[in-house]
Amino acid sequence: MMTSKIVRAHTQVAVPDPRRALDVLSAFYRDNDCSVSIEGDDHVISISLGTVRVGPRDRAIGIEITAANDTAITQLKTGVITMVDQLVPGADLDCRWHGAGQASEKGGKLPNFRELSVGKVTNLGPDMRRLRLYGDDLTPYLGGAIHVRLIIPPHGVSAPQWPTMGENGLPVWPKGEDKVEPRVYTIRQINADEGWMDIDFVVHGDNGPGSRFANNAVPGQLVGVTGPIGSDLPVVDWYLFAADETGIPAICRYLEDLPDDKTGHVILEVSGPDAKQNLPHHPGFDLAWIFRDGSCPEMAFAPQGTNTNVDADADAGAGAGAGDDVSPFARAICDIKVPDETHGVFCWTATEQKIYRHLHTHFRKTLKLGREQCLVMTFWRAEAH
Ligand SMILES: Cc1cc2nc3c(=O)[nH]c(=O)nc-3n(C[C@H](O)[C@H](O)[C@H](O)COP(=O)(O)OP(=O)(O)OC[C@H]3O[C@@H](n4cnc5c(N)ncnc54)[C@H](O)[C@@H]3O)c2cc1C
């Protein structure tokens, strides 16, 4: 019988009020849709990468993390220490981890760090651009987790400095003129044998490091990558995928991978008719487009090949949870009838933060879907980081 390996690491962080720290951390993770259970004095937080057990110590909190491999352990270390840093005033972050993930020793590289070089640049429409990025040994990026953290060098720098791991699990970021910026993207396609991955960037101007990098990319430019991040789609019968441009690469990957007997809807919001893309054909899914510019000749869903548009000005139906002040995109998503099956459905949405809030209320509170039935995500925020 196969047994899956579990690896562990632990540390202790000095804090002024351990029980208050536990409450604040648990509240944060609960708000972000993670399950938190109380076991004696310990709070046990389950997240997609693994489990975080936090317990009170003498003027400190003890943190134990478990996960399937060293990469996930290293990502969990970074995630949990980042949250302690942000949420627990007075926490002494000068801590040291014991156990798994020792590749993250001081000065080591970030998990699966690779330096990538821009190859071919392809425009996919008025506001999306595909960069083919070449690098050595991309095998860790094959598989179920399809997102990555790109590390964007300062504009115009040809020999960037890359971050390293600190002993406390936090990356040590280059400063000043060497400052690099992490941004999350999706691997649209990957070929590890040939050593490349394609990333489709929304190009919204030179107003953010990710977009500016794509906007100005020329072959030979360098960018870092670490990860991968994310989790597999659950296996169900019916799926709803809804996203603006930022989620199109992920939805394309899902449509390519899902077996032909699965069914569902895809609903996409883009700037206008020129921004429509050719999505992989899946016989069980239909597809609708919503245009932010208001041009909308047709209405409702059609078989996938026909790329029908939803009328953004029409009353898309105030589905459960839809209010008057929400966008046509959000209204159209909320108007979709989710089949009345407890376990056979999965709704996946990737949008701007304000729409996320509305959709989260709709799926989790109005439709009462469980965490295993929906993943409602913010992919970007309509203000600077
Ligand atoms: C799991 C995951 C996967 C993602 N995959 C992709 C992907 O494959 N392709 C992709 O393009 N994005 C993807 N995103 C979204 C991407 O991470 C954000 O859009 C990110 O903010 C872009 O960084 P930036 O440096 O361009 O802009 P930022 O520095 O974040 O922001 C600068 C300014 O640009 C605005 N801005 C940021 N993003 C957008 C946008 N999409 N449209 C309009 N204005 C924007 C901000 O509001 C801000 O005013 C993904 C996000 C997540 C969480």
Question: What does the secondary structure layout of this molecule look like, with pairings?
Answer:
Blueprint (H helix, E strand, L loop, with lengths): L6 E8 L3 H14 L3 E5 L2 E6 L2 E8 L2 E8 L2 H18 L10 E2 L14 E12 L2 E7 L12 E6 L11 E2 L5 E2 L8 E11 L4 E7 L6 H7 L6 E8 L8 E7 L3 H10 L5 E8 L14 E7 L10 E2 L4 E2 L18 H8 L9 E8 H14 L7 E7 L5
Parallel strand pairs: 15-16, 15-20, 16-17, 17-19, 20-21
Antiparallel strand pairs: 1-5, 1-6, 2-3, 3-4, 4-5, 7-8, 7-14, 8-13, 9-12, 9-14, 10-11, 12-13, 17-18
The structure holds flavin-adenine dinucleotide.
Task: Describe the fold and architecture.
With 385 residues, the protein is of the alpha+beta class. The chain has three domains: 7-104, Alpha-D-phosphohexomutase, C-terminal domain (TATA-Binding Protein); 114-229, Beta Barrel (Elongation Factor Tu (Ef-tu), domain 3), CATH 2.40.30; 238-380, 3-Layer(aba) Sandwich (Rossmann fold), CATH 3.40.50. Helix content is 18%, strand content 35%. It contains six helices and 21 strands. The chain has helices at 18-31, 70-87, 209-215, 248-257, 328-335, 353-366, and strands at residues 7-14, 35-39, 42-47, 50-57, 60-67, 98-99, 114-125, 128-134, 147-152, 164-165, 171-172, 181-191, 196-202, 222-229, 238-244, 263-270, 285-291, 302-303, 308-309, 345-352, 374-380. The strands form four sheets. Strands 15, 16, 17, 18, 19, 20 and 21 form a seven-stranded mixed sheet that branches. The protein has a six-stranded antiparallel sheet with strand order 2-3-4-5-1-6, covered by helices on one side. The chain has a six-stranded antiparallel barrel with strand order 7-8-13-12-9-14. Strand 15 (238-244), helix 4 and strand 16 (263-270) form a beta-alpha-beta unit. Residues 303-308 and 310-323 have low confidence and may be disordered. Bound molecules: flavin-adenine dinucleotide. The site of flavin-adenine dinucleotide (FAD) has 23 residues, from strand 12, strand 13, helix 3 and strand 21.
